[in-house]
Amino acid sequence: MPSVWRGDPLWLADVLRAEGLDVVELTGWRRRGHGVFSDMRGVMVHHTGSNSATAQSIAAGRPDLPGPLSQLHIARDGTVTVVAAGVAWHAGVGMYPWLPANMGNWHTIGIECANTGTSPSAPHRRNWPDAQYSALVNSCAALCRRLGQPAARTIGHKEYAGRAQGKWDPGAIDMDMLRRDIADRIGTAPSPPTPRPGVPVGYYADVLLYRGSTGPQVAELQRRLKYAYSAYAGDLDIDGVFGPETEAAVREFQRRTAGLRIDGIVGPATAAALRLRLVSSPD
Ligand SMILES: [Zn+2]
Fold it and tell me: From ligand 1's centre to the CA of 234, what distance in Å?
């Protein structure tokens, strides 16, 4: 199980979408950043200071601080915009037990939520619309799951930089309550994505997949394993070929799921437990 991921998170949009979130990809996000990530350890949450701050403003930065200012922006309606895959200037100086001092930018994914923060002493979720709060919870859960980390690896800017910079963001967020909600979400399998019109999808029922199988249904299996069960399938190639790695990931899924036979074969029971979608063949 990887505890550390190397390289930029080019998987951001896919992982968030697989969580069922409304995702917008800001043009150029894959190449935007102040450098390349080498060791991602967790997630840091912020408020922008204004209810109307846009994802574009996070990409552009401020006169005193060039953008990107974070990797993700969450609007008040719950829309999650992927702003950058590279390192962003969001953390500044500060410290936290699993971070090297003042190095938060190089080790955490930053989330800027369009919110005034209300005040440093405001009660939990005051002025946080349900859509924005649940998008935050689900984004953090998706990222922690992808990083192979628990909910404890989501921290607030105020926890890292409160003493060093007097930061109090995210305001009106009790970080322990947020982490509890993230932990609950991590323990729940993501809901299946909403089928797009015109693309026939459904629950897989009558096709067996096993070592040697090939095609789009195998690719869909690999995608499902890789993005929803990345703790042990994160390195899986989505190549549509059911090889030894795919079989090992299927066995691991079966081992961790009560009631499944551990045979490395995807039949109806395993497919249902995986919430695998049926992909119609192009012909
Ligand atoms: Zn902040």
Answer: 29
CA–CA dist 136, 189 (Å, integer): 17
Tell how strand 80-82 and strand 72-74 pair up. Answer: antiparallel
For the chain, the domains span: 12-186, 198-283
pLDDT for position 259: 82
- For ligand 1, the distance from its centroid to the CA atom of residue 196, given in whole angstroms, is 36
Distance (Å) from CA 279 to ligand 1 centroid: 42
Domain spanning 198-283, CATH class: mainly alpha
CATH topology of domain 12-186: Lysozyme-like (3.40.80)
The residue assigned the tokens 């992909």 is: 279
The CA 274 to ligand 1 mean position distance, Å, reads 37
| Residue among 157, 64, 182, 162 nearest 105 (CA) | 157
pLDDT in tens, 71-95: 999 999 999 999 999 999 999 999 9
Ligand 1: centre distance to CA 137 (Å): 17
DSSP at 197: T
